[in-house]
Batch of 2 targets.
Target 1
Amino acid sequence: MELIFEESVRGRKGLRLPKCDVPQAKDISGRYKREKPAQLPEVSELDVVRHFTRLSRMNFSVDTHFYPLGSCTMKYNPKFTENIAKLTGFSQLHPLLPQLLLGGMLTQGALEVLYNVERLLVEITGMTEVTTEPLAGAHGELTGMMLIAAYHRDKGSRKKYVIVPDSSHGTNPASAAIAGYQTISIPTDKNGVMDFKEYKNKLNSEVAGLMLTCPNTVGIFNSQIKEICSLAHRNDALVYYDGANLNAILGKVRPGDIGFDIVHLNLHKTFATPHGSGGPGSGPVGVRKDLTQFLPVPKVIKRPDGTYALEENRQKSIGRIASFYGNFDVLLKTYAYILLLGKTGLIEVSEKAVLNANYIAVKLKKYYDLAYDRICMHECVFSATRQLANGVHALDIAKALIDRGFHPPTIYFPLIVKEAMMIEPTESESKHSLDRFIAAMRGIAELSQNNPEVVKSAPLNTAVSRPDETKAARELNLRWIA
Amino acid sequence: MELIFEESVRGRKGLRLPKCDVPQAKDISGRYKREKPAQLPEVSELDVVRHFTRLSRMNFSVDTHFYPLGSCTMKYNPKFTENIAKLTGFSQLHPLLPQLLLGGMLTQGALEVLYNVERLLVEITGMTEVTTEPLAGAHGELTGMMLIAAYHRDKGSRKKYVIVPDSSHGTNPASAAIAGYQTISIPTDKNGVMDFKEYKNKLNSEVAGLMLTCPNTVGIFNSQIKEICSLAHRNDALVYYDGANLNAILGKVRPGDIGFDIVHLNLHKTFATPHGSGGPGSGPVGVRKDLTQFLPVPKVIKRPDGTYALEENRQKSIGRIASFYGNFDVLLKTYAYILLLGKTGLIEVSEKAVLNANYIAVKLKKYYDLAYDRICMHECVFSATRQLANGVHALDIAKALIDRGFHPPTIYFPLIVKEAMMIEPTESESKHSLDRFIAAMRGIAELSQNNPEVVKSAPLNTAVSRPDETKAARELNLRWIA
Amino acid sequence: MSYIPHTDQEVKQMLKDIGVCSLDELFKDIPPQYQPASFNLPEGRSEFEVYEHLKRLADKNAASLVNFLGCGFYDHNIPAVVDALAGRAEFYTAYTPYQPECSQGTLQAIYEYQSAICLLTDMEVANASLYDGGTALYEAGMMALRITGRNKILIDGGVNPIYRRIMYTYTTNLSIDFVEIPVSHGQSTREEIYKHLDDKTAAVILQNPNFFGAIDDHSDIIKRVHQAGALAIESVYPVSLGMLKTPGNMDADIVTGEGQSLGLPLSFGGSYLGFLATRKKHVRKMPGRIVGETADKRGNRAFVLTLQAREQHIRREKATSNICSNESLCALKAIIYLSVLGKQGLVDLARLNFDKAEFAKDTLARIKGVEVKRSSPTFNEFTVCLPRDSREIVASMIERGFNPGLPLGKYYEDMKNYLLVCVTERRTKEEIVRYAENLEAVLWN
Amino acid sequence: MSYIPHTDQEVKQMLKDIGVCSLDELFKDIPPQYQPASFNLPEGRSEFEVYEHLKRLADKNAASLVNFLGCGFYDHNIPAVVDALAGRAEFYTAYTPYQPECSQGTLQAIYEYQSAICLLTDMEVANASLYDGGTALYEAGMMALRITGRNKILIDGGVNPIYRRIMYTYTTNLSIDFVEIPVSHGQSTREEIYKHLDDKTAAVILQNPNFFGAIDDHSDIIKRVHQAGALAIESVYPVSLGMLKTPGNMDADIVTGEGQSLGLPLSFGGSYLGFLATRKKHVRKMPGRIVGETADKRGNRAFVLTLQAREQHIRREKATSNICSNESLCALKAIIYLSVLGKQGLVDLARLNFDKAEFAKDTLARIKGVEVKRSSPTFNEFTVCLPRDSREIVASMIERGFNPGLPLGKYYEDMKNYLLVCVTERRTKEEIVRYAENLEAVLWN
Ligand SMILES: Cc1ncc(COP(=O)(O)O)c(C=O)c1O
Ligand SMILES: Cc1ncc(COP(=O)(O)O)c(C=O)c1O
């Protein structure tokens, strides 16, 4: 398709601006001025509408396709939450208003939302306090690492290492590194969980913290979590909970109850806020009691008189990690989602998410190798090793699924499973929808056996097929040039 | 695609209702009660979302495709007007509120909108008063016919006939007939306008009125309109202006200035309100001074103190033609559109609409026969007679256009042009867009010459192709049956 | 701008290609003396300025009064999916689905809508929509005239008075014998109907629940109507059909109604949705568009507009109706609404309305001087008799933040003290109690 | 319900197929003693009830104060197309475009967004988005450390103090030498910068217009920075680039900014959009996702995520950043906004902001005791010095319906009497005049 820039016609305009109702001001000196206008598109509003409407139709999405992308929790995003974020009482509110004298009283509704979201997330995670500020999961991780550093700094120590299992998501080691830590990687044992012996061996007094995903990224809940946490604590290492997989355990277990010290949640996963083609997300961080003093500011507090206010000075706070209070619109949608589902609804989410994943695992394991053949949690991971014997990679299976109207599972991750296909159906999908997916996967398995070339030539039904990634990286073309 | 009913799973629910906060009431007697629940779909909200999202993607629309459907004025529908209709101060307003004591003062904003729309349409048409009540163009026509009847009745006469040219839209004779008139059809002369001699011949004292579209449905402005109107008036027949083609003449000529007595407008055409897959529309009717007494009630009036009120009693009013004040949301969008464009913008609309139509006419007339080879107004009508020599019908050309990503022109109308292709590009389309359409039409013309079978097998790129209409009408299947 | 893409350069080029020198030349068919006498319109503004203007006007309306006003137009909850889906541009910026290959989305949705209307009403066929409940009733009357070849229509006084006025308006110029069955204090009698029922009668028009909210079973009347060779037309309130005996089950011949309650906002009176359903045998006499299922040339399921030979664009003056544009998008909203509400949802929703209204009746009945009419069961709307003219009471209630219902004196001379009160699922117990407290205060303070 | 489609029947069947007897059995890996200590959450409610609750909370916020507050977060008009298009479900319910064949829509839009950012800033490459303007600036700093291998950063005191606090926070645990160039009464000097610039300096961070709204040409500074072997990082306000000299033209190495002004609502602080652009030679050190154009196997134009080897999912602890989810939908809004605004539109918009702010300056300058700072030209934001502590004056103005600007004492000790005032195109002449009248009244009545 043409780029919007390529649709430009010199002199064409899209938008009518308000008329200027003040006198034209004296110009600034030429040295401060732009030489030539930016070559933005010169298109009509209809051009813009057609262009982006057509682009939209080239995407798969939850609303159009089953989207079992493992680790991403692509559940249904309730429509009514979109309307809530559009309420002008929220959408037109300047974030600095509550920081002005008297402004706090004029933003009580927004502050109450932040406060209530925090309280709900506290109850859901079993932590003591939550900051809503982190803007995505990885941002939460980085915040968590800074909290760990603050904790040790406060004790006068400066530890060097953070432990991460090799099954961990790439953001975990990256966050630790960026926060100034070196990482120690622990292998996964044959049951799909962190090798306990190895962990014990690597743990030492220079370890500042340990990052765990639980259930982990192969969909398995480690029954030894408590022991793992205790061991860390005995070494004065803090344990960080990557909450990307919380969808599996709502109301079943709370990280705060089993020894985790710091937790981040991915609201855009567990709490059904839309992924927006890759963001915005929201990654609130919860901590146990003695860490609350380090949380970033500002924080919303409830005063004895029932009003809400911003606490801007927390002496030991790590400071500011984002411009304001988090991705407020995402928090609003989360709040609405939790209120709608309530306690029973949230528990049901996890039960049905786990049911769906196991159903797929059982129905497909005759056709594909399960990485770990056991009851799983919210997702199951297959390996295309059997298909590889015929030259068919997980990537090929992914492309064949696209032809059949399904978004592929995650295949670039986890790195510890060869030719991984990580399938997370979520609770939103019906048995019918799973059955259709299972049938497609079975069909592809058979085709991989009988006619692998066909699978390898997929997709056929899409506007583009197998873009050349090497060319993309070598002959960098990252922008339109006039 | 499956029907939403076929996606039902027994016991599945989509929507959570509010909890009942009052005691359960004593049941009514069984004889008043429904025996079995209606077999509505049993689906989840996501099922509903996917179903209708997918359905939407099977449509062509202005936002996705050039849509030169003649007589329908498929122009761009500005997005901001949608937001206006959603303002809760309008959308949640009960229409009976202004009819209650004190309620009028609490609906001043809505009444002002109605009043202002009326005044703007009065100025645009040159009539004296307008009623916003008619809910579509045809509804306006019927209202107009009733006004004609009321006029004659008031004079103590009851005339029998209404004259319509044979080029008129089907709604014209239908509206006249439904209002109790017999119709007299006048042929079109070789210049594409109503045969003046025939008209003169048919006119007599039993003729209650004459309905004209102007420019007419072959896109031609009849320069003798004033004479035609005078002649009718001399016979005490009223002249009705079908405003479906007003897009051609905004600010260029006003029906009220050249002798028309009654006018309807299609707001969903000229004033850019979306067609909604076939409605809602809005068909306000304007009248000359001495007919205002017959207009339907209620009517909004402006009081001397500047407030707005409903006039419910107009002695000679024809009565009520709809439940309330018209399709209010459509009126809102119209109001917004007119305010945005303003005088200059509206004039530009007609100029560019006419420019676009003539451009297409000129560029295609070497390839297709123009029904009337002369400067046209906002639309041009071709006849596929040349293609028919090779067995290619206008219908086939239409289907071939679909394959090429264009909505076809109107081909079922006007009936007086054999194998008609009525093309109305509207002012919204750019030269680039027209050029692409022209290229496609030329391509099809060549193909019709060289390889007519290919054209006749179109469309190939659509989910369905050439549904069997005979079967549809013979083996009626008009609903899902459980 | 103004949504017009042309640059000056392009205009020049196009004029040249056409072979004229100016835009004016394109308008040469309009004689110079036809120039507008005036065209005094304001100059254009930006969308932001227009939005602000309309926001100000919107804010002048008391849309947030706690609403107890119904009268056929109801304040129901609308699930967010309805607008999210009907707001897809492919639906709302398309035209009537004349070209099936590029309109299957609309066609299938309308087919599903027709199906849902049939299921709701227990009828055999339904059309693709009409303008609103009032004009739908008028179309039903016309249809009955066509079917029976007779020219007398009886209409019950319990039919919405707005609809009755519409019927009168449309038939003034036609020679139709129109008989209104009188009601006395909100009650009409079967005897009155039978008195006028004869072999000239084309149709009897009834409404259930009637304008006073009263529920009835019209089976016995309809039997008599059929014996007289006439047709029974029922006007219904779709939400009530989650609970009430269906018109199909009562053996009605034509059923119409206002579809606003199926997911459309009140929106000051429009856009609304008229629906019409009937027996299969009458389908060729039915007005409006109809979508049918068929097969395409590859044998795939396909949907098309069918029975177009009834319609104006084919039959012109002989068409069954003059309707062209209908309320397609509103019908789409209705089928989305009914789909997400679902089978059990409609039952529960009806029950919720009923329970709330009964609670309101009991609560209001406790106020001194307020008499709640209980002669018939009601659904979610009912009449109360107040100690004085209800019109002024209404004004006082409006001042107190309520939209309290309709004073019936306007339409029924003998009911000046009556108020028609509606309670939908949107009203909370707390609001109902507050309404009662305020009413009491208005009456006795 | 709760958006879960399973019926009891299906659950039974699925459990049977899995080979377990109950849902609990699926959770058997969670030891019983791990049971939640509590899970005290409210019971679920319908969307209608939740909406009402949130509507009430929304109504408690004074979002309709006439806004003169900016500070990097601006109250601009947002054309309706932006949300209409970004609200297409295919965009907002999709994930990161890992699978190019079913994500071309997102990929192309992001490529276009990157192009627009480059054009705006006059830089060579841009990434697909970062969280917000503040974290983008931090990422730029990190990037400069990586590129230069040095570890000292100078940051001008005229950079948004919120961003400066963010920078401090993130670098506390790292051994970075962080120097803040002081400002005195809103003015920093080049000499101060040069004093600290040395061969350990990785980057100098500047902002234009700076926090006080002052416009500068940093070309000379940047020249010196480059002579010292350091990089120049510019934080910019995109709307101002319709008028102001571009950072590219000043020879900046990395440019970042807050994209909120490009079509995103203020929304109480988020979701916002951080953008980052740089020279092509630094692209492999750039954080965040990048979309590139390539060809597919049929030779058609295609877009993909490229240079992924920099990213955490491949490089883990060696990645250029830990970012994963970014602000894709906000970037989409920005490119839609910039497309409909267009080349001339941006110029006109910038001019409109400038003119309004200049008018406001002139108007406020006429008030006794109000001193408008004019030492530098400004864009749409400027400082005024009031006769007393601006904090209380702000409170009085809020009471009068204005969001009057930021009292600068909070961030600059020597500026207790100063107020930072912003005037965008949304403010009308009438509002500006009223603002001045009210300010005068607050000061002198
Ligand atoms: C296990 C895990 N951790 C962390 C993240 C990072 O979350 P975000 O994309 O919100 O930064 C992800 C995202 O996919 C994840 O799957
Ligand atoms: C010339 C003409 N008249 C009348 C109408 C009827 O208008 P509506 O569809 O709004 O009833 C049309 C609609 O296509 C038309 O083209």
Note: The two ends of chain A are 17 Å apart (CA to CA).
Target 2
Amino acid sequence: MNIFLMRAALLSLAASAPLLAAPPLPAEHLTVTTLPPNNPHRIYVLDDAFTNEIDARVHLFDGDTYRRLGQIDAGFNPGFNLSPDGKTTVVGTTYYSRGSRGTRTDVVEFTDNTTLSITHEIVLPPKRAMTLPTYFNVAYSADSHFLYVSYVTPAASFGVLDPAKNTVLEEIDTAGCVLVIPSGPNRVSSLCESGRLLTVTLDAEGHEASRALSDAFFDPDRDPVFVQGVPMTDGFAFVSFLGEVHEVDFSGAQPAFHQPWSLVSATEKGHWRPGGTQIGAIHRKSGKLFVPMHRGGEGSHKEGGTEIWVFDMKTRQRTARWPVKPHKLAPVLAVQVSQDEAPILFAATAHSDVAVFDARTGQLRHVEKQLGQTPWVLLNP
Amino acid sequence: MNIFLMRAALLSLAASAPLLAAPPLPAEHLTVTTLPPNNPHRIYVLDDAFTNEIDARVHLFDGDTYRRLGQIDAGFNPGFNLSPDGKTTVVGTTYYSRGSRGTRTDVVEFTDNTTLSITHEIVLPPKRAMTLPTYFNVAYSADSHFLYVSYVTPAASFGVLDPAKNTVLEEIDTAGCVLVIPSGPNRVSSLCESGRLLTVTLDAEGHEASRALSDAFFDPDRDPVFVQGVPMTDGFAFVSFLGEVHEVDFSGAQPAFHQPWSLVSATEKGHWRPGGTQIGAIHRKSGKLFVPMHRGGEGSHKEGGTEIWVFDMKTRQRTARWPVKPHKLAPVLAVQVSQDEAPILFAATAHSDVAVFDARTGQLRHVEKQLGQTPWVLLNP
Amino acid sequence: MRSIDHLFENSSRALARHTSRRSLLATLGRILTGAALIPLLPVDRSSRAAAAEPGGTLPEAASVKGTKAAADDPLSCEYWKYCAVDGFLCSCCGGSSNACPPGTAPSPITWIGTCHNPTDDRDYIVSYNDCCGKASCGNCECNRNEREKPMYRPSRNNDMNWCMANADSNYHCSVSVILGVAEK
Amino acid sequence: MRSIDHLFENSSRALARHTSRRSLLATLGRILTGAALIPLLPVDRSSRAAAAEPGGTLPEAASVKGTKAAADDPLSCEYWKYCAVDGFLCSCCGGSSNACPPGTAPSPITWIGTCHNPTDDRDYIVSYNDCCGKASCGNCECNRNEREKPMYRPSRNNDMNWCMANADSNYHCSVSVILGVAEK
């Protein structure tokens, strides 16, 4: 940079006398930005870039200033997550030696959320599950000692990684059950075709210590749940195609299932449905649940919400309906809510915009146009 | 496939009797399409995919049926060309081991235009010119024995490759002159800052036999030419920012320069200008030149044409002006014309559409919407 | 499908760790062929924002959306055979409704669906395959999900990249191939 | 610039074949610094179809296109300093008009341009740098070309990827850095 400054100084000296009294603008430095630590209103938006899918990325966006903060490149059909302390973004992805073809390399990459530089990577066996991103493609143990990566080849298993030592510790077969739902320091649950959860408990070295299969907690034939579990204080809520809410408590040694309840009345059932790529978000302190809902029938479970419905998790009552069409927004595919006292609701639409609402009132504050091609999942600290 | 057919047959047998008299549709085979040989109305459209630039591609499109014929992936910031016999597409591009970063590999890839499979590749030194695609980033000798690749590091040179033996034969420094304009079996010309052409003649092994610098044929300060040369029967026409046409005959041992002529009248000069990413196309048999023109001043040379102007190269007269706005088209960035008796004019717009016109009448026949993100260059056999 | 699902869930564990992927596929293929004449596992891709995509709009097809003609038009997402396609239509990418575009490879694993043909009022069993080995086609994005199920039921799921087991596992587009008439 | 261009054209030949790229850059940098106090070579990227891009539209800036406010707004392509930027504005990508976004690296080679600041009615010499090592930012595409010249005049060209000499040569976005007031 010094040479630039020197040049600038010399150029300024050489310049003819300014016509105006005000001094000329000073020479500038070229710098590289770093980010302040996370705040609750920062959001990490996964753009799968579906029409150019080898070039997925995570966009960082600020819900207060409405500025884009930076980008984390994410390869092909990635999964991603934040570390429990929020300081690291982990991306599980696949690269090919010739862009869209050639030698396949599956990898997880760790990005420092302050510098947005990749600090290290762990190469995986070429088994990473290539599917829609959720919380459960790549996930940390609660104490961050393990990182779990979902594998599907199509045989289902998962990798146990040591993110500190940069190694793959183990591959654990899951008997056809998929995804990695982390709980505690050493448990991983997976969703099974039968509607059960398989829970594998690990020893200190990341090897399997034990496994157990739960009872079925939903009927995958008549009313399957979305795999997009919604984080609660002590577990995840799984919402079904018809709008049943299955709250699963993962705080114990084995998952415990609450009595399901319904987002819809008897007359609405089957006509109004949840749908999208991220079908719920919970403000944990207030117990508010936000779900994109649409009118539709069988097979409409990927349609976005024409309304966002708000529920009180304690009373299990709907407290608000927020239609998005009056805001000229396309249907909402993904929702996320900040966890602070003045919560923001983020909503990604089918037209690739991300809307920012006051989560208490539903008031629209901002629409960020075209936050990538296909923003499908929104994570926040 | 056999197992599918067997299943289908069994399923058909097992099915209940059809309600209708008509027999059910037969089981289908899953096949892979191959293409007929090139025809004059096929076009190769380079989509630089500027917002996802590691995922550029070449789209094949049929100007008669308006169908997309297939795709050739093209990596990052590619150059491309067709072999003299039209049977091969050659793409010069760059890959990184981690998508957008990591180890850089520069390569030229050869695609069979019937199967759209890559038949072979030649790895280059990491010097490939990363710039706008033109005819001159990657180019064959007239007899196809050599392939030339433009290098800029920013020092300028070019690679001489043997596409049959899959080897890089030589790197030839060009003393600051850029791009590879091929002529005959063994000559390469490059455009110099001074407005001259440097012509290097090669020996049979692809090494430099001699070089010569032409006189300046344009004034790079006052009226620079676009580097997007337009193929004529015996060379290329270079159009200047202000609309001067410099026809250069490359059929002899050294380039010969015709007297330049102007696309614009004295009153139009400086007000109407050519502009875009591919600023001309010539129907060689009829001597018709097509140029996208716009109203604009200094610095507008990348603005697309609001009109396409048609010129007779022999009389050097404008014969038609075709405004594109009445067709609801955005400004035209690139034009190409087929070389047959019933020529088609293709025009790529700033909204990423490709319009198909009758090149004799200017009648609009079709608008192919969104032929990629950023279709910047159109080549045809 | 119940018995097959169950088989898959309980038998794949031992196989997964000790068997190569290809041989696992072959083994499961045999199991399934013997058990129910159903080809193994889904196709396809997830995708959502058709209207927003640069290439997400359908080409100028002869048919108009919502009409009978659209249900008969292989260039339309509404074509009857596409009732659970989630991806780009190969028919708009240089292939057809049952042919991969030049230079791509069909996925060796596939899943089946049942689609109703309004012309002859029959239900057909179709195989959804992905065509693999080139980057996303980007044209004619189509997202239909009749009887589609989440990822824990892989034989009915179209969110997964069913090119996963290809030598070049990149997803390009999707086809729908008639296997035969469905049992009533 | 005449003498420098000429020097470049006639002196680089011997260097190109026998010298590493980095050392060539250093050499030319010294030559140019000594000759004319002008940083070596252009920045930037070509780009055209702002209106058509998924991310090609400008964000909700305070300014309205064509106004004085836009010329003062670093989030607007019309900002006075951007008079020959062809690419994505780093100010819309997590950086600013003179700062690269987090995790990217400035290009060590650069070119200069002259832009007029309407506020103080002065011409400033600015350095255009690319920020490199991440995929295209995709936001705020901006294509201005005042005094821009074709590729055979590299010191004035913005079509080239001026990340070319970076360890990670992928282009992300562009900045414009004030060097000083231009001589009249």
Note: The two ends of chain C are 15 Å apart (CA to CA).
